[in-house]
Amino acid sequence: MKKTILSILSAAFFTCFFTVYAQSISIVSPNTEISGQANEFVMKFEADVINLAESGFNFKVKRKIVTEVSGTFNLFCVGIHCYTPEVSESDGIYIEMGATDTTFKVDYYPEGNVGETVIDYCFYNEANISDSTCIRATFSVMPVSVERLKDKAVFVSAFPNPATENVNINYNLPSNEGGRLMLINALGSEVFSTQLNNKQGQVTIPRGNLPAGMYFYKITTSTEDSGAKKLILR
């Protein structure tokens, strides 16, 4: 009887030990502390997923916001898909035994907002959700210096916003060197761009076949960046 009880306790102990410590996923990232200034368009975070198991399996990624600066925007990509803030969990991604998946990437858009956003990303075996590993990414955004704003600022605004038809972009550049206006969708793809040859002016972005949703517009020059601003098309 004692042997039976000891056997049961021993089995329970080793099962618990395996669940807590015997993870099949390892996450490697060169940098989890990402810093930038408020006028930056996008800040990036990347991590590799390594399969330590003796067979292949499907893994998923779950995003959990710990703290978030109001007005910012982030999306993560893994496999062939990208996921906006409305989606907290990815589809399953198959990874071979001993393989490394390098497709996980995060884009964080400050949109001119200062502060610290902290996000946890948990990677887990789809067949065993307790077999998981989490990594924390911290995005720290600092204000742009007053001197730089006065001397080298790029000013840009959109009207109407939200828009149902064409959008007018008003801009003012720090010099006559010109610049480039870009419109980018929520997946980070450029859907419109045009060269700016005047120090100030207005550009009309045609609605065309652009689907409704969230976009970002920005102007870059050879030395400056307006930072990304949000545009909603309905």
Map the helices and strands.
Blueprint: H1 2-21, E1 25-28, E2 33-37, E3 43-46, E4 48-51, E5 57-67, E6 73-78, E7 81-83, E8 93-95, E9 100-101, E10 105-109, E11 115-125, E12 128-142, H2 146-152, E13 155-159, E14 167-172, E15 179-185, E16 190-196, E17 200-205, E18 213-220, E19 229-233
Parallel strand pairs: 2-12
Antiparallel strand pairs: 1-4, 3-10, 4-9, 5-8, 5-11, 6-7, 6-10, 11-12, 13-14, 14-17, 15-16, 15-18, 18-19
Output the keywords.
single chain; 234 residues; mainly beta; Immunoglobulin-like; 2 domains; five-stranded mixed β-sheet; four-stranded antiparallel β-sheet; 12% helix
Biggest sheet features: 5 strands, mixed
How would you classify the helix and strand content by structural class? mainly beta
CATH class of the largest domain: Mainly Beta
CATH topology of the largest domain: Immunoglobulin-like
Please report the number of helical segments: 2
Strand arrangement, major sheet: 2-12-11-5-8
Give the overall silhouette.
Answer: elongated
Please give the CATH architecture of the largest domain. Sandwich
Q: Could you tell me the mean pLDDT?
A: 82
Overall number of strands:
19
Strand percentage: over 45%
